[in-house]
Design brief:
Elements (H helix, E strand, L loop, with lengths): L2 E3 L4 E3 L3 E6 L3 E16 L2 E14 L4 H15 L7 H7 L1
Antiparallel strand pairs: 1-2, 3-4, 4-5
């Protein structure tokens, strides 16, 4: 497993479901292991939620740099565009 250490948390990288990239911030969605459900007779439902948090370049410069480097390190070995390519499209 790969973990990303930020200033106030450690993220299990395998639990990241998506990262929205903006000019000065990332919004990171992480899969929550909590599953809720209710069943009655032969019907029911199950649901889970994603945790979402923001890393802003102005408020958390070191954490923003860590996430940027993590994304760019993986951009070359998959179809993920680098952050500079993403910013150029906006």
């Amino acid at each position: 497993m790969t973990f990303i250490k930020l200033s106030d948390m450690v993220i299990n990288a395998s639990k990241i479901t998506s990262i929205r990239m903006y000019n000065n911030k990332y919004i990171i969605n992480v899969l929550n292991n909590d599953v809720n459900g209710i069943f009655l007779a032969f019907s029911g439902s199950i649901s889970s939620t994603n945790n979402q948090f923001e890393v802003c370049s102005q408020e958390r410069k070191a954490d923003y740099a860590i996430i940027t480097n993590w994304i760019n390190a993986r951009a070359t070995d998959s179809f993920i565009p680098s952050t500079s390519e993403t910013r150029a499209r906006e």
